[in-house]
Amino acid sequence: MKLYTYHTPERTPSGELPVCAIAIDVLRATTTISAALNSGAEAIQAFSNMDVLMQVSEKWPAELRLRGGERGGAKVAGCDLGNSPLDCTPAVVKGKRLFISTTNGTRTLERIQGAKIVLAAALVNRHAIVDYVVSQQPETVWMVGSGWEGDYSLEDTVCAGAIADSIITKLGVKLSDVAGNDELVASIALYRQWQDNLLDLFYLASHGQRLVKLECFDDLKFCATPDTLNIVPIQTSLGVLQSLKP
Ligand code: 3SL
Fold first, then answer.
1. Which of 53, 74, 123, 246 is most enclosed, with most CB atoms within 10 A?
2. Which of 120, 104, 136 shows the shortest CA–CA distance to 19?
3. Model pLDDT for residues 86-117, shown as the tens digit of each residue
4. Residues with Cβ within 6 A of ligand 1?
């Protein structure tokens, strides 16, 4: 197995796809997707374009649908939810399909949706994702951070490093056995330096600071805490993620 980290969807090699592609948007899209599925959402349907989301979701039964929209960190007018994982309680999402569009995370999912296996990962479900990847042993794994509008983000790259570090430990292999690119090595180094202070790192991160201005302190804490959700969001049809059945 070869592991690759890409800081943003724009950095992925064009015209190529791996066997397994993992979208990462720790702040906050993939954390929210994990939280919603963990609370019993029927599925998550991701869109980069808000107008398309509105058109497609209109055809879904109103009582079984939720619309989540975020731009610049704030909730989009006309949506039921923004992009806070803490809003995704069972009372709100159970049995419903969450149609979601966010600034960066849903664009990442769109970029990788042609891969054979498509997963959504965050720190909250790191171990569940690692266990799944180790059980499948795909030949090539891309971990694609979402960043912010094309730029690098600390929180996504540290999550890629956390996943890779744990895969290496579980497989009992050397870094050189699995490292597919330089970014993979750098992401593990970032994780090893900050693994005991992830929340501090999130407060340093530019998007962390953006969320602090929006007073999303509880979101930051939730998103920075690893391994709280035993859930594997996996693409079951184009653009649709569901919880992997055990
Ligand atoms: O960039 C994204 O896709 C969002 O996760 C950003 S936010 O955390 O909702 O502001």
1. 123
2. 136
3. 999 999 999 999 999 999 999 999 999 999 99
4. 25, 27-29, 70, 73, 83, 102-105, 146
